[in-house]
């Protein structure tokens, strides 16, 4: 207890001393132009591959995962939401998102030096190109793309919370504003060295906090603000095709190797460890979920197996570059059990119609992973020891910020363009009423 | 034609009518009310070729429905399948 208090005091002292120091200090590093000889072909090849894998997680992975779980009348609209987010966030990212997230600035937001990617260069004649200070052995263009694929999947995850009832225009507006005002700052806090959580030493290897807690908290606010779907809690919402969900979950599982092992930004031993623990946590998460399902309900379901795997993957995300296999076994198992509760008992207690359990799986899984990273981080692997209080601080700060700003955005949209389709349109289905198409 | 296929046909009719003449119909009411369905079929016949084709298919389906014994929720329950999924997904997916 005394030790915990001592660490807590150290955290507070770090906050009070470090933040003003950060304001005064010169930017420690920034993107720079280097000779092509500095670029590692191996690292670059792996990061190109990892980027494609992460993009594959959203389209078609997440699109299929979610589309299989909604009712037939909303399959196309649900899949389209992931696809549309991909296009919208891509444009936003190259215009301003990357610059504000991944260039030095204040401890809360980056600078404008890479607006429209100005300054990012590749000059074949002189053999020079720009690199990010966060990944100096790969071209900056690859780093921009890699981080873009994370920026895409995060708001795409949120679409599961408001599935089957949001207006397409409201979804696009929310994605635009949320990416700019929530994702970009949080990515800067955690991953850019001048960010305040990064400076505090909060560990988040591949996005447990930036992606999953962030998306889960926003998802819960969306579920509350939009209200439950017609008939929620009274009639069965039978999923259209769980075969799609299995295909989507499988693509997510494989794509997650790019997500986690790619976050090493190098083709090295740490990336190898990240890949190994990712596989182990996905497996144990899936098994744990199915086991508890078998115990509580008498059967293990396909949806349970898929959900558990995703829960394990979410939880290992922040830990993947810091922990060993034993820790991965425990993290995956814990995530399977906790997220099962999150998507059932906790969900019913909270009363929000979080359609596809974004909060129950991503936020709870993210918190589980963030906290357990503080417990299990092995300095031999990641060069850093974990600190439970710092990890908790990172998780809680992100949760509160994401929930608050998401709520503001949703209120603003509700009283301007409106969030929800009309009751008639909801009954007919979003495929027809929003897009003029239907599944046959 | 099962319920899903009938819904899909009605949905296509909705889309085609909206596209060709700007007319919006009530898909659920179309599925439930035969008089309304006949009126929609009449409208569709006055629209473009796609609507005419869909109207013909829907009319054939209507005739088939009339000839079949009425299917009740109890009948679904007798198969067991409806009950199994029905209770499962009421409070959420998982």
Give a verbal description of the structure.
The complex is a heterodimer of chains A (440) and B (94). Chain A is an all-alpha fold. Helices cover 67% and strands 2% of the residues of chain A. Chain A is globular. Chain B is globular. In chain B, helix 1 runs antiparallel to helix 4 (49-67) and helix 3 (34-45) packs antiparallel against helix 4. Helices cover 76% and strands 0% of the residues of chain B. With 94 residues, chain B is mostly helical. Classes of the chains: A mainly alpha (440), B mainly alpha (94). Chain A binds chain B through residues 69, 72-73, 233-239, 303-304, 307, 340, 343-344, 347-348, 356-357, 360, 424, 427-429, 431-432, 436-440, and chain B through 4-5, 7-9, 11-12, 14-15, 18-19, 26-28, 85-94.
Secondary structure layout plus pairing:
The complex is a heterodimer of chains A (440) and B (94).
Chain A: H1 2-24, E1 32-35, H2 41-67, H3 75-102, E2 122-123, E3 128-131, H4 140-158, H5 168-191, H6 196-200, H7 208-226, H8 242-261, H9 269-297, H10 302-316, H11 325-343, H12 345-350, H13 358-376, H14 379-382, H15 388-414, H16 423-428, H17 430-435
Chain B: H1 3-21, H2 27-32, H3 34-45, H4 49-67, H5 73-79, H6 81-88
